[in-house]
User: Fold this.
Amino acid sequence: MLQLSNDEIVKGIRSRNKAVFEAVFKQFAPSMYNIAFRYVKDEDDANDMVQDVFLNLWKGAENLDERAPINHYLARATVNTCLNRIKKEQRKEVYAKEQLLTAAPAETSHSMLEHKELEAQYRSALDKLPDQCRRVFEMSRLKGLSPAEIAAQLNISINTVYAHLTTALKKLRVVLINKE
Assistant:
């Protein structure tokens, strides 16, 4: 293994000398792994962290400070990488918990009762509509048909379809709003 001074290491990495980089990796990777493992407690994650540190060393070679010992730089970079990963995982966990809480809100028996009551009021109001008006409304809202499709199926004009929809919405709105 090459024994290089800090200046030689920095100059070699800055000039993208692969032999110097490999020598630095072989020399310092085991101790960086130990640092990473103390933080993340997982062999694969620790190896990933070390790889990230050395990848960033290679990418940012031109920014290396020749006054700072390379082992100190690598140790600090390893700790920072570990801390950043831990913070990222914590944010993911918090986000996942928030999603669980908001995605499936626990329905209380009271809210279920209100929902059933509202559904019954809606059905009752729908039943009170004139037959043709109710049929047009159901074809539009429940079956998802367009006004043109409804007009063709019922053999009525499109303006009649719009008139029935308007009437149905007005009557449903009045009944449901007055019930609340």
